[in-house]
């Protein structure tokens, strides 16, 4: 889980897969199982980042959770 400024530095460096989630979100909890598997498969190929930060979600126009960008 990254927060700013580390998040911004990471996504500026290279293409990344980012999941925006919220702790209270039931769909996020279910999706986290799949997202962890994706992270394992793509390890070393492309960064897979999880973000639980309302200000970053607003900055990237997240309208609902979970959101993958």
Automatic annotation (TrEMBL):
Domain Thioredoxin: from-to ranges: 1-69
InterPro entries from the UniProt entry: Thioredoxin-like_sf, Thioredoxin_CS, Thioredoxin_domain
One Pfam family cited in the UniProt record for this chain: Thioredoxin
Matching SUPFAM superfamilies: Thioredoxin-like (SSF52833)
Signal sequence region: none
Protein name per the record: Thioredoxin domain-containing protein
